[in-house]
Write a structure and sequence with these properties.
Layout: E1 7-15, H1 18-28, E2 32-39, E3 42-51, E4 60-65, E5 78-87, H2 91-100, E6 105-111, E7 114-120, E8 126-132, E9 154-161, H3 165-173, E10 178-183, E11 186-190, E12 198-203, E13 217-224, H4 227-239, E14 248-249, E15 254-259, E16 265-270, H5 298-304
Parallel strand pairs: 1-4, 5-8, 9-12, 13-16
Antiparallel strand pairs: 1-13, 2-3, 3-4, 5-9, 6-7, 7-8, 10-11, 11-12, 14-15, 15-16
């Protein structure tokens, strides 16, 4: 039977400054800005999508940069660390690059036969670079990072929970994941045993609950092939009494949302139509794209959002 859930689609976080966000994720990390649009629920706020060359599922990190937003707090009931995948030969390059741009990091350390560097962006969002030889995806580069050292997409995500059992049951019984590995309080699951798919449930019963704010993740989205598999997945989630939303149109995919047993907001998003429905590949992320319902207000919105600069020469 074909899987309804095929892996991570995207992860969405909160930030406090649009330009700083662009500079860090495009400039320092070298991700591509594949879409510059606005928050469907707050059109005065940008919605940035970063990813590989065309923003394929499993590579997309998105942000709502609310100017001046107060910082949040990592804790249980939250996705606290987002991990990116790189070649094992790139470790030295990235240690030097992080030092060059004043990014403090912890590591390298070992986990499940992979090498890990942990660091945070300017808002305190937890990030990891994971180095292995498992990932055959090509990375993206604007040219200021050598292609062989570029980020290939997600490696996985780390979710802090009170106890892992109920969250694990949801992943394995309704969301087509299987147990991959465990060590101590860390339990790994994946729809496929490959980078871009790993979900680590970390039991943190003594941690405070996380608080939303800049530097925290709003939700994680899982990918489903199409509209029909999304509806089928919605039935499964409903059977677990988790009250998913109706299907919502997000222009580049459709979505349903629900909270998993540990309180983390989950989304199931369709793989298509993708980010090239309104821009050519070479033009992705270069102009402000608005949902249809806001197009009539374009002039007002363009005056409201802060201007941003997409020149990354200083990050060579």
């Amino acid at each position: 039977m074909d899987k309804l859930i095929t892996g991570i689609h995207h992860i969405t976080a909160l930030a406090s400054d649009a330009q700083h966000n662009i500079d860090f994720y495009c400039g320092v990390l070298g991700l591509r800005l594949v879409k510059k649009t606005v928050n469907f629920d707050a059109p005065e706020v940008y919605h940035f999508y970063y990813g590989d060359e065309i923003g394929q599922p499993g590579t997309i990190l998105t942000f709502f940069p609310y100017q001046g937003l107060s910082g949040g707090r990592h804790g249980k009931g939250m996705l606290n660390t987002t991990s990116f995948s790189l070649a094992s030969s790139s470790l030295g390059f990235w240690e030097e690059r992080l030092k060059k741009f004043g990014v403090n990091y912890k590591g390298p350390s070992d986990r499940f036969e992979e090498t890990v560097l942990y660091f945070e962006d300017g808002d305190g969002l937890g990030l990891e670079l994971i180095f292995s030889d498992k990932d055959q995806r090509p990375g993206f580069t604007y040219g200021h990072i050598p292609a062989e050292h570029s980020i290939k997409g997600f490696y996985g995500a780390e979710l802090w929970v009170e106890g892992y059992e109920k969250s694990a049951a949801l992943l394995t019984e309704q969301m087509d994941h299987v147990a991959i590995a465990e060590k101590g309080n860390r339990f790994r699951y994946a729809a496929k045993d490959a980078p871009g798919h790993y979900i680590d449930l970390v039991c943190m019963p003594d941690s405070l609950r996380g608080l939303s704010g800049a530097g925290t993740v709003h939700h994680i989205a899982f990918s489903t092939p199409d509209a029909q598999t999304q509806l089928d997945a919605r039935v499964r989630i409903s059977q677990r009494m988790l009250n998913p939303t109706p299907v919502l149109d997000r222009s580049y995919f459709t979505s349903i949302y629900f909270r998993e047993p540990g309180g983390i907001l989950f989304e199931i998003a369709t793989a298509g139509p993708g980010f090239m429905i309104d821009e050519k590949k070479e033009e992705l992320g270069t102009s402000l794209k608005l949902p249809n319902q806001y197009e009539a207000y374009r002039e007002q919105i363009e005056k409201t959002v802060v201007p941003i600069n997409l020149n990354f020469e200083k990050y060579r």
